[in-house]
Amino acid sequence: MSRKTILAGLIGAGIQQSKTPAMHEAEGASQGLGYVYRLIDLDVLKLGNEHLEELLVAAQRTGFTGLNITFPAKQAIIALLDELSPEARGIGAVNTVVLKDGKRVGHNTDCLGFAEGFRRGLEGAARERVVQMGAGGAGSAVAHALLLEGVKQLTVFDVEPQRAQALVDNLNAHFPGAPASVGSDLASAVGQAQGIVNTTPMGMAKLPGTPVPAELLRPELWVAEIVYFPLETQLLRDARALGCRTLDGGTMAVFQAVKAFELFSDLPADAQRMTEHFKRMI
């Protein structure tokens, strides 16, 4: 009896340091699967979001089971899909596409991934006022997760104000009491907040820096990241130097991968085993 085989891939820009392929392949091997996971790096291929359709067609023609989607394509991919899961539709972003029976079905596992990390890494953290940097695809998922986890007031900042407004409108349509607003004065918002979450790509190896100037931080804040390569970004380094509670992007990376593995394979993943494998790689 031949073993089940999975062919998956990650579409994104600047993803050469991603640990996702190794996590998927190791879990597949542990379950006796023939599991191959490829990087489809838009930077390496010198392609942009305008080429997503041809990449999807190529993946379907060559027998891919599914694709993970990361920056900058989590929202651009939506118009090219046949169906969306309820989570992906509500969030307005897709990070996982299952290719089956000629259809492209979009899912979002980022929301679950961040929520799991938040519960594990920042238990008991104050949630009255939180500042979120970024309103892109990952930011949409994280914002939903924050409100689901009990954040009362979420202030969103983005380099594109209209994108921040679109996310805020989406959140206020899904959560009672209009808990989200667009930020205009970062210093003031951080000064009133208990926590900060960075959902922008700033801090990645290819985009060094920090979205929040170090002088705005104070020891009472908790600070969370979704970037995990590197695991310690400049923002986390600045926050830890002050004694802030911090959460790196590792747990989100693992738990979004756990769910994506399950969507691709139709088998339950061992979250603890995938966590341990991730830690060995870092």
- Total tally of structural domains: 2
Q: What is the percentage of strand-forming residues?
A: 15-25%
The CATH superfamily of the largest domain is known as NAD(P)-binding Rossmann-like Domain
- How much helix, percentage-wise, in residues? 25-40%
Any idea what the shape is? globular
Description:
It is built from eleven helices and twelve strands. It has helices spanning 20-30, 42-45, 52-61, 86-91, 110-121, 137-148, 161-174, 186-192, 234-242, 250-265, 271-281, and strands at 5-12, 34-41, 66-69, 83-84, 96-100, 103-107, 129-133, 153-157, 180-182, 195-198, 222-225, 245-247.
What's this entry about, in short?
With 282 residues, this protein is of the alpha/beta class.
